[in-house]
Amino acid sequence: MKQDESRRKFLADSIKGFGAAALSAHLYATASDGVKETRTETNSADPKIRFVIHGGAGTILRSQMTPEREKEYRAALTEALMTGYGILKKGGPGLDAIEAAIRFMEDSPLFNAGKGAVFTSAGTNELDASIMDGKTLKAGAVAGLKHIKNPISLARLVMEKSKHVMMVSLGAEEFAKEQGIELVPESYFYTESRWKALQREKAAEEEKNKAPKDKKQEKSHAELFEHEYGTVGAVALDKDGNLAAGTSTGGMTNKKWGRVGDSPIIGAGTYANNSTCGISATGDGEFFIRSVVAHDISALMEYKGLSLKVAADLVIDKVKKLGGKGGIIAIDKDGHIAYSFSSEGMYRGRVGADGQPIIEIYEETERFGEPRSQSKKPA
Ligand code: ASP
Q: Which of 262, 265, 290, 291 to mutate to test the pocket of ligand 1 (most atoms within 8 A of CB)?
């Protein structure tokens, strides 16, 4: 068996192996569990390893969530989280943990990545992903894919099996064929809810365009794109102290003209550097690109000595001032985990000090660790 094939088999087995048994009482860990835990906790059962994931940021309100839906999200996030963490616990590399967790979320229709990707204006699905290794600073990214079941795996192959960093569209899919990656027909990505979201978005757009010219106001980003949350990402610190990060998305509903967001842009949506931190972002991609979010956080740590949480809050506030919403998940080289987001919610999960999953969704639980108000000032 070729090395890649055997790695993919290992990842697939890891996903299957975790199973429902692990969806224990901890699955429904409450928000307060998260608040109690401090982000500076490094004295966990397994002191070296850390794992954190997200499933997208946006207007996620408790009032709009049904208990069934919330349960589904918590179950999927827990399984993705523990799939990746299980690999780290066995001593596996962070890149494997990230790839496995993201593949799991790409295969779920709940998330805007892989199977559940949103639709473009043309009624197609165009997928983007990226991954970065904090030890070597190597990175791989793909964009505009129409037939790749698991874009994160292709991004990893770009990093490991080519001399390039980023490949797009048909060329990237040619490379995928050469690498033996799984291709699927475009119909694989059809989900009714994402299709309906596109119709809603198109109707709203038409309505706006009908308005008399002088009454037409400049459209905000939120009006241009319906934000269908669900971009996914993961950051790992493995037993060797290596940081890695990855992100995968279908982008924004109704996107046009080959639009690409921040998720596959190294330094914007994804960044990892063993001397600072690993980051995966989600939100209004245009603003995250313009703010070079992930690298900016790392640079504030590297050049100004800021803590992860302080740097992350500063950059997310900067994005907000520009008019963009969203957030990041991150781990620093010492194992501190941080979230920062300006949206009403962000699907997210981390493994707590006791090795158990902590899943959070809504805004009020964002303040674990340093309160946001205090953390705005440089340390
Ligand atoms: N950042 C992604 C993009 O702009 C979307 C998201 O995170 O929800 O493509």
A: 262
